[in-house]
Amino acid sequence: MKQTLKWIGIVLVSIVLLPLVAIFFIYKKATGKREYDPKVLDNLEEAAQDYVKKTAPLSDVDSRYKYIRLAEKALPAAKNIEVGEIENKKIDGPGGKISLRIYSPEADGPYPLMVYFHGGGFVTGSVQSTDGIARKLVQTTGYRVISVDYRLAPENPFPAAIEDAYATVAWVSKHLTSLRAKSKDIVVAGDSAGGNIAAVVAQLAKSKGTPNISKQILLYPPVDIFSRDASVLYPSMDEFAEGYVLTKESLDKYFKLYLSGAGDRKYDPLVAPIRHKDVSDLPAAFVATAEYDPLRDQGEAYAEKLKDAGVPVYAKRLEKVPHGFMSTPSAATDETYELISEFLQEKL
């Protein structure tokens, strides 16, 4: 009897406790060590303060990214943001299948189309992590949003993400009828690393002559090198190097992971779209930056470069928020969605 109870105990530990311990370990590694400088909180609006308090700095992202990815898979859908039909789909890409999540408005089509690229430093992030943003874009703009799960570094370093992104927009342009598109015009959009991808895809489409991208929405994008030496060009890299979750050190690590094996191409416009010599005739751009973001200055520099080249640009610096503010409901987030909706309605 004692032997039987012993084996029952072993089985229970194996089936119940060990998985729970594993889940707890993954959660702790994914969330990291939550610490913040109380002095920075006075600079931020209330929702941003809460975000900084509850989110660990990303300076150790090189040791945490695999756990962050696992945690992102368990994120619940933002079902409180109601939209119409949602379809998960796989298409052929240059490196295998590309997973898409297609969100439709509640109203009947045809619809204007937007292709959305998530953030995450090219290393983390997914259609699940930006489910709320995609839903809100559908709800506030009336667009059908195609969210893209592009390949991530370091397993798939540059240019894998760009290849998948361009392949997806090309696929969309060839399936306008089945997507119930209102026109052949396609808007590209993205936050953080996704903003970089959207900017690069807009440049590629111009150089190749296809697909027809009408507008680009870039939310706090890195558009130049974002390694440590970027601070020589962009003071915000040093000004907000610590204290606002995304740190100078984390950017340097993201950059190295993204360019693994391709460091000699760090000034390539496919990495740093601001380095493209000719940015004229690009699609009209909406560029949102965050006041307390190490990437702020380069996003604003790109907006200026586009303006100087004659591209219609609406640039807005959102005050009292850090990088990644779109993931947290706030006054700045609501304002950004309103501005995006207005930008999309304008005939430029």
Automatic annotation (TrEMBL):
<dbReference type="InterPro" id="IPR002168">
    <property type="entry name" value="Lipase_GDXG_HIS_AS"/>
</dbReference>
<dbReference type="Pfam" id="PF07859">
    <property type="entry name" value="Abhydrolase_3"/>
</dbReference>
<keyword id="KW-0378">Hydrolase</keyword>
<protein>
    <submittedName>
        <fullName>Lipase</fullName>
    </submittedName>
</protein>
<feature type="active site">
    <location>
        <position position="192"/>
    </location>
</feature>
<keyword id="KW-1133">Transmembrane helix</keyword>
<feature type="transmembrane region" description="Helical">
    <location>
        <begin position="7"/>
        <end position="27"/>
    </location>
</feature>
<dbReference type="InterPro" id="IPR033140">
    <property type="entry name" value="Lipase_GDXG_put_SER_AS"/>
</dbReference>
<dbReference type="InterPro" id="IPR013094">
    <property type="entry name" value="AB_hydrolase_3"/>
</dbReference>
<keyword id="KW-0812">Transmembrane</keyword>
<dbReference type="InterPro" id="IPR029058">
    <property type="entry name" value="AB_hydrolase_fold"/>
</dbReference>
<keyword id="KW-0472">Membrane</keyword>
<dbReference type="InterPro" id="IPR050300">
    <property type="entry name" value="GDXG_lipolytic_enzyme"/>
</dbReference>
<feature type="domain" description="Alpha/beta hydrolase fold-3">
    <location>
        <begin position="114"/>
        <end position="326"/>
    </location>
</feature>
<comment type="similarity">
    <text>Belongs to the 'GDXG' lipolytic enzyme family.</text>
</comment>
